Fold:
Amino acid sequence: MRILHTADWHLGKIVNGIHMTDDQAYVLEQFFEIIERYSPDLIINAGDIYDRAIPPKEAVDLLDQTLTRLMTDYQIPMLMISGNHDSPDRLHFGSQLFRNHQLYIQSKFHLPIEPVTFTDETGPVHFYLIPYFEPADVQSYYLDQKITTHQAAMSAVIESIKENINPNERHVCIAHAFLAGGMESDSEDRLSMIGGSPYVDVNLFEAFNYVALGHLHQPQKISSDRVQYSGSLLKYSFSEASQKKSMTLIDLDQQGQVFFERIPLQPKHDLRVMTDYFDHLLSADHYQASEDYLHIQLLDDGQILDPITQLRKKFPNILRLEKVIKKSDRGLNELARVKKNQQRTELELFEDFYLEMTDEPLSEKRKQMLRTVIDHIKQQERGQ
Structure:
């Protein structure tokens, strides 16, 4: 059986103020080219379909067009789960109807997990769709146990599946989780750590012939070929600049052995970091003009008058420009920053953090709520 594994589309993503919908549509055209070239028997999307719980209209339209085209023009089954960015309720809409068109969406976690089974010329292959969950979601099914970590929760879920597994047949797990040993990047939201670690041990999945994972954005295998992250559709932060994005093609043979190939994806605009002197960057001998999304780091010591305007004539999509500070200067600047922060209030520090995470200022209503929480914590620390 041939399986095309993808994940982490993050439709509706905004990177440094740039809406990525057109770039995502460009790559999704390659998704259909891959389908036509490699003829997979089915497709897996392992979560984070959208970038946020309430996606923008353009993102919803793009997913609608993509799934409609897949179901009407190709009639290839697609198995999809929700990730930590998705709203389970919104992604669940129409899921029962879509099954009649071979689109299987499992966005809400519940037990038991019933497999979706497909058959090839050598027999059945069972697919277990495990959407993203918090430990508390699993705890509600095991009142006699204390489940506070993702490891304990996933262990309970996998054990419940293994009770009904026939070891003589083939089994595929689809999950959205953070496996220990995986390489992460800045564009991935950290999973909940309330009560414990978000990491899951790869050894939990030994009963499966293949494990199709979502969450980590770098294409990678964990421990063996049979446990894979397909990675994200595009580069979504400059920490991913050196990564090569792809979709993963899996051939599952009659004995359940896995053979894989990464099919590269070419972005409309690459996301790159360029580090050099200002004059070199403007020189045609050193760099060609480009519309890629760029983070430019200048090595010059002296002051440059309005460098961004001059550079954007050649590189119109500069998303970040900074001057590389020498290590000695960086140490002094870091010390000054720490001293400055020591003089700021907890609320001021949280406002900066909130702005950096959301690109939006903290509202007055939330400021007041935060003041109340801070005052309450201070009173507790004072023993009041």
User: Anything to note?
Assistant: DSSP finds eleven helices and 19 strands in the chain. The radius of gyration is 24 Å.
